[in-house]
What does this fold into?
Amino acid sequence: MFVDRVIIELQAGKGGDGCSSMRREKYVPRGGPDGGNGGDGGSLILESRLGVNSLAAFANRRMFRAPKGAPGQGALRHGKQGKDQTLLVPPGTTVIDAEHGFVIKDLKKHGEQFVIARGGRGGKGNAHFKSSTNRTPRERQIGEIGEVRDVILELKSIADVGLVGMPNAGKSTLLSRISSARPEIADYPFTTKHPNLGIVDVSEGKSFVMADIPGLIEGASDGVGLGHEFLRHVERAGLLVHLVEPMPIDNTDPVQNYKSIRSELCEYDASLGERDEIVVVTKSELEGATDVRDGLAEATGHDVLLISSMTGDGLRGLMSEIMSRVDLRRKRMIEAGEEVTVLRESDLVRTPAQQGKRLPPHLAGPTQDLSDKVQAKDFDQPSLDDQPSQEPRAGGEED
It folds into this structure.
C-alpha cells in the first residue's frame, strides 16, 4: 500500500518524579536525605532512510508515544531514562506542523534526523536540595511532561526525472522497459494509482531515477482526476519528460493535450513551467505518429523525440538525452555548493564500522600502508646528517 500523506500525533515520554526519602538505619545516627532523581523521558526522532518507500507504517496508527522515565527511589537510586524512539520515513518527506501549517523540517537526504518531540526532564529528589542550611529537605520535583505535537508527514518523491502526460500515454510501459520497476500496465485510463520509482542504468557508473506520475487531465490542479493528489511528486524532479500519445482513445488532439497538461503544471506550481523538459511522442508504430511529432515540434519550437516502448525504437537515444541533461544539472548543483542526493543504498559510502566489519590489525594499525611491494625498508629513514648535532660542552670534553 502506497501512502504519501498522513496526520499523526507524537507524544514524548514524561520525566520520572524525584523521590523524597530519608535514610534511617541502625548505627547510622545522621542518615539524612537520600531520595534519587527521576529519569528523563524518551524523545521521538524522525529519520529518513533509504529502503523506506512510503508512509504506510503510519497509516493505521494515529498516535506514537515514547517511553517515560522511571521515578527515583531511596538510597540515592536514580530512575532509568526512557529510551528514545526513532521513526523511519522515506527521503523526501516534509514534516509540517498540523496546527499552524509551517514546515518544520524537510528530510531530503539519507540519514537526516531531528528530534520532533523532546522528552520531559526527570524531577530532582530531595537529596539534590541538601545544603549546609537545609540538612533535612523534604521537597522534591515532579517530572516534566513530554512535548506533544500533531504533524503532517507529506512525501514528495525525490527523482531526477518525472514522467508526465495524459492517461494511457505510455508512462508505465516506458518505465518498465528501461528500468527494473514493474508498474501495473493495462489498456484503460488511470491504471497507475500511485507514483512508481525506477532506477535506469545507462552505462557503468551512470544512472538516474525516474518517477512515473499518475495520468493528468484538464483540471488536475483543481482536484479533477487522480493527478491532483500526486502533482507534489513532480516538484523535486529536475527534468520533466512529457509523453504524448499520437492517437488518444478519446480522439482528442495530441497537440492540445500537450498544451493542457502544461497549463495544469503551471497552475499548480509556476516553477514547473520553467523546468527543463523533453517532449516525446510514444507509440511510433502507429500511423500518424511522425505527423504528430512534427506538429509538436512546430508548436513548441524544440526538437521532439519519437519512441516506441513496444518495439524499442528510440529508447537508447532517449536515455542518452536524459542522462546528458541529468549530468549537466548535477554538475551545476556541485558548482553551486549543493550536494547530489543519494537515491539507493548501493551508492552509499560506508565505513567498515558502519558495515559492521572489523578490520584486522595489519590493515588498521601502523602497518596498514605496507604490502608485498612496499616494505618497511622502502620508507625514508632520517640520515645522520639530518639529526641534530651535539655540541661539546665548555672545556672541550663530553661526558
